[in-house]
Amino acid sequence: MIKSGRFGSKSVMKVIYLIVIISSIGICFLGLQSNANKERQRKVEYAKTTIKNETVKIQRLNKQILQFYQNDQEEFLVEPVDMEKLKEMEREILSLKTEAKDFDLKSNDFSVDTVEVTQGKKEMTTKIKNLKNKKEIQEQITALLVHAPNDWTAQTIDIIINELASVTAISKLRSKIADSENEWNNAIIAFLTEMDTQVKYYSDLKQEITAMSKDGVLSDSVTMDNFILIFNQLDQIKNETLKKELVDKMDVIDNLLEKQAMGEVIVNQEEILPSEEPLG
Known about the structure:
The chain has about 280 residues and is mainly alpha-helical. The protein is built from 7 helices and 4 strands, in the order αααααββααββ. Helix 1 (about 1-65) packs across helix 3. The longest helix is centred in the N-terminal third of the chain and has 63 residues, at about 1-65.
């Protein structure tokens, strides 16, 4: 009987221990759950405050981007563009928080209204993209000119193409211009049109001059009149290097015309005087 009593007492103690352990676990679980709820609520409150601040930041960035443009209008860039400031602004835009994951929250826990911030971030991203695109196109145009334009507004187009300019290069640039009506687009198209005109004028003259002789032999159609006509058009070429190239070609043709006028005949690329004509 004594042994049985001891055994029963031990069983009761085990049950008590189990109850204590389970109760402790339950209390810990409830505590953890309570802490998790508090942490989640803290994140939600932080998200609400942050979203308000992000809205103010977007308003500031919208004003700040105007520093890259002339006359506070998003058309013509201020030269040169401050790339450090632009990169800093870009980083700020990328860091804007607009989603639940930005606050380490699940979507169903994220009840904050972010429409204004999300839309603002999207618009600012587009504005930065447009600004960088304008800068890139202007740089690519400048790469085809002897000097960069003094004024990109195209009120006075005073530009000179360089030796890299071509119809293909200009066409590629033209394809990058958005199909929309605004002052910057119109100005850039005006520059490209002038460049195109200069390239085609040079190419047409070069083609005509090249056709006037081949391997030191004048073509049948060459006369002093069309030589003078073409020579007088050389002054329209603004690029001095390209002009000199054509002037040198015209000098060769001029020498051939002089020899022809003096009675020299050019046959099979050899110069033979009339008295030295081969016997029949």
